[in-house]
Write a structure and sequence with these properties.
Length: 184
Amino acid sequence: MHPFVVSKQSSFKAVIEHLQHELSSLRTGRANPAIVEDIKVMAYESTMDLKGVASITAQDTKTLVVQPWDKSLLQAIEKAIRDADIGINPAVDGGIVRLNFPMMTEENRKKLVKTMKEWCEESRVALRQVREASREEVMKMEKAGDIGEDEKFKMLDELDEYTKELTRNIDEIAESKEKEIMTI
């Protein structure tokens, strides 16, 4: 692969990583710490991610346990989860916050799949934007005389092929996530 294309791989991969992070926060039928770890909590007169002030573990497939490192943050954590509007009612139980996930309905699952597909399409568009910006750089390099026409076409072909590969990757991720969401 041409060094120019290799130098652009991190931009392409950032799109995929962002999608995977977004999808990890989608609520499937299982309790997953990623659903709540980025919730913002007011702690020590600043805003922090929940994962920065507490440990989050899955007790079982329907329950998450949030254990703050500082017990004085229990009420702030409970309030932040309640205010996040993720459809889960937190319950303070001693020194922990327990999150019980209700069973998802078929309708909720279909809405999640629709949201997931929208995010995947946004990622495909972002990949094409990265490709187009890279193509413009290649054109400028040729116009400036830094590369020849053959090298330009080789680089453009590699950019197109890499974009197609990552688009297939997005499709595989979407298919896998849809199965996960629809599985009861």
